[in-house]
Write a structure and sequence with these properties.
473 residues; alpha/beta; UDP-N-acetylmuramoyl-L-alanine:D-glutamate ligase; Protein-Tyrosine Phosphatase, Chain A; ten-stranded mixed beta sheet; six-stranded mixed beta sheet; 16 helices; 18 strands; 21% strand
Length: 473
């Protein structure tokens, strides 16, 4: 394939549009990519030609793509690598195009050695038609926006069939839907988490894989981490959890951090929840596959600051607030479980903002698959739950059926009023949590950023938190 005349106006208009948007304080990725792809539908292939001598890496899956990609990007920066990355989370072809153009000179030559892209699952087939990834990290598969993706089996099959045979896959060994990708694929790397104190032999959570993806027989589990993640075996065909090349061991929670070991190397993450442990481990495994030195990996993980609503912290006079995107039952369950664990040490107040716009998924019936009933375990620790967004009333109804007392539930659809209501009932010593869906995330984040303490004070407040007790998770 050769670059056509369409490439040059597409590149130049893309770069110019991005520059203008960034001057206006915008990310400058998606809209430039939309314009560029209309001018040259092959622009991604054309941008990749002769560029990225260290290869292209993609990260896909239902949950954890953004956090894993940003963790790995922080590691690569520590290692002194020059790379193209869509860190803003624009993971469709348009966002990838915009990110590529930002690191490409006006001459068409890239300033990056390699590319690191978070890729939406439904976008993987088209992207792999345009470029050939050298490495692909697959995090997990869960039901998500069925009105957009369709049945999960279809999504899994499309991603599996799209990845080129010579693409080296870095797979979650604990998810049978992901582990199957490497069953007949050479040069596969697996990561997993050892059995934890809270791992269970019987699970009542929503899980997507009760049956073997290879033969259809019922899977047996020695233990579950969450959802369908765990130590599985198929008596029908012998399919089983592969032995991880990189396994998280001796996992502990220290203050607001997770500490764990991989092959004797101690690592630390300023993130909460078992699902974020998998994200950190996926980034570690990718870095090791790229032969990044241990010290760069350790520093990159340890100094990573959560952002874009992925367990991002804001400091208020009343205390700390954690912002966590929720979008499907499995991910929301893990956030709820993290909140329940945290409430063993302090009181909490919650703001849940549910929208039903196109990017959220029009069908919000997934709320009934989330185990909000777990909140009953900490009912005495909950000061208030503010329901906001376009479907605030639906969220309040779901909480009522989960057994939460109506005296603790407030309905305030407008986000700014919802934040004000939350702060009025907050009080010293409590920890705040805000759980928005996609289209509520950035407006809510802007409100929180405007009302919270300055960034310097925010960081100081985080450092000043009491150490608390150390515990295994």
């Amino acid at each position: 394939m050769k670059r056509t005349w369409r490439f040059w106006p597409a590149l130049w208009v893309c770069k110019l549009t991005g520059w203008v948007l960034r001057k206006l304080g915008k990310n400058g990725t998606t809209l430039p990519g939309v314009i560029a792809n209309r001018i040259d539908p092959q622009i991604i292939a054309h941008l990749a030609m002769g560029n990225y001598p260290d290869g292209i890496m993609i990260i896909t899956g239902t949950n954890g793509k953004t956090t894993t990609a940003n963790l790995l990007a922080n590691i690569l920066r520590q290692a002194g690598k020059r790379f193209s990355c869509n860190e803003a989370g624009a993971n469709l072809l348009t966002g990838i195009t915009g990110a590529m153009a930002q690191s490409t000179r006006w001459t068409g030559r890239s300033a990056a050695q390699m590319a690191l892209w978070e890729v939406d699952e439904a976008t993987v087939p088209r992207l792999c038609e345009l470029v050939k990834p050298a490495l692909a990290v697959v995090t997990n598969f869960f039901r998500d926006q069925l009105d957009r993706y369709g049945e999960l089996d279809t999504t899994v099959r499309l991603v599996r069939e799209a990845l080129p045979e010579d693409t080296r896959c870095i797979l979650n060994a604990d998810d049978p839907l992901v582990a199957q990708f490497g069953w007949q694929r050479a040069a596969t790397v697996y990561f997993g988490v050892e059995r934890l104190p809270e791992s269970r032999e019987i699970s009542d959570e929503v899980r997507e894989s009760r049956f073997c993806p290879l033969c259809g027989a019922t899977l047996d589990y020695a233990w579950f981490q969450y959802g369908q993640l765990g130590n599985f075996t198929c008596a029908g065909c012998g399919f089983h959890r592969p032995q991880p090349h990189w396994q998280a061991q001796e996992v502990q929670r220290r203050q607001e951090r997770m500490v764990f070991q991989v092959n004797g190397l101690e690592l630390s993450l300023a993130l909460q929840g078992t699902y974020n442990l998998y994200n950190g481990l996926a980034a570690y495994s990718a870095a090791k596959t790229l032969h990044i030195p241990d010290e760069a990996i350790r520093t990159g993980l340890s100094e990573f600051v959560p952002r874009a609503g992925r367990m991002e912290s804001f400091a208020f006079p009343e205390g700390l607030l954690t912002l966590a995107l929720v979008k499907n039952p499995a991910g929301c369950n893990q956030v709820i479980r993290t909140i329940v664990q945290a409430a063993q040490r302090r009181e909490i107040c919650l703001l849940i903002a549910i929208n039903d716009q196109a990017a959220d998924g029009r069908d919000i019936s997934w709320l009934w698959d989330v185990d909000f009933e777990w909140l009953q375990e900490i009912a005495g620790q909950i000061r208030t739950i503010v329901c906001a967004g376009l479907r605030a009333e639906d969220m309040a109804l779901r909480l009522k059926y989960a057994g939460i007392g109506m005296d603790k539930i407030r309905i305030e659809p407008a986000l700014e009023i919802a934040v004000r209501t939350l702060r009025q009932s907050w009080g010293n010593g409590a920890h705040g949590y805000a759980l928005p869906t996609y289209t509520a995330l950035h407006p809510l984040r802007a409100i929180l950023a405007a009302q919270s303490l300055s960034l310097a004070k925010n960081s100081a407040a985080l450092r000043a938190q009491p150490a608390g007790r150390e515990e295994n998770i």
